[in-house]
Amino acid sequence: MSAAVAKPTGTPSTTLGSRKAKGGPLTSTPAATNKVKEVGDLLADMSAMASQIDTFALAAASEKDAKQRAERELEVERSRVKAHQQKDKTPRPTTGGSGRSAKNQKVLDALAELGVGIDGAESTVKKTKEQLGRELDEMRAKAEAAEVAGKKLEEELRTVKSNAEAIELSRKKLENELSAARAEVSKLTAKIKEDYENHIRSVEDHERKGQELEEELEAKDKLLDQVIEILGTYRARLDVYAKMQLGSR
C-alpha cells in the first residue's frame, strides 16, 4: 500500500498569474477573484485529503507490521511446541501443559482477531482511499473546469481591454477631428468677420462719398442758381438796352 499520494502541480491561480505576467496587467473583477478563491479552496481540500490518505496508509502499514511480527512470534511458538511434541511422543496432560495450550490458544485467538481487525482496517482504508481518490478526481476536474473558466475570463478581459483601447483610439481621433473642425470654424469665423468689417468700411466709404457728392451737387446747384440769377440780370439789362436802342431809332 502506498504511503504517499501524488499531489497536483501547477494550480490555476499560479497559471493565471504567469499568464498575467506574460500578457500584462489585467483588470481584476469579482468573478475572477471568486474563481481564483474557488480553485484555492479546491486545492486546499485536495491537499487535506492527500494528507488523510497518507495517514490511513501509514496506520495500515503499522498494523500490517504488527500483524507480521505477531505471526512470526506465533510461528516461533508453534515451532517450539512442535519440537516439544516430537520430543515427547506420549504427552501427558499437566497443569503447565494445559496452561501453555491455553496460552497458545489465546495467542491464536488474539492473532485471529488481530488479523480480522487488520484485514477490516485494510479494507476500510482501501475503500476510504478509493472514495478519497474519486473525490480527488472530482476536485481535479473542478479545478480544470475552473482553469478553463479562468482562461475564458482572461480572454474576455483581453477582449474588453482591446475594445477599450479601440474606443480610446476612436475618442482621440474624434477629439483630433473636433479640434481640427474648431480650428476651421474659428478660421472661417475670422474670415467672415474680416469680410464683414471690410464690407462695413466699404459701405461707410460709399456713404461718405455719396455725402460728399451730394454736398458737391448742392454747391453746384447753388452756383448754378447764382449763374442763372446773374444771367437773368444781364438779360434784363439787355432788354433795357435793346428797348433803348429801338427807341433811339
UniProtKB/TrEMBL annotation:
Residues 129-226 form a coiled coil. Residues 1-33, 61-105 are annotated as: Disordered. Residues 62-91 have a biased composition (Basic and acidic residues). Keywords: Coiled coil. This is Uncharacterized protein. The lineage of its organism: Eukaryota, Fungi, Dikarya, Ascomycota, Pezizomycotina.
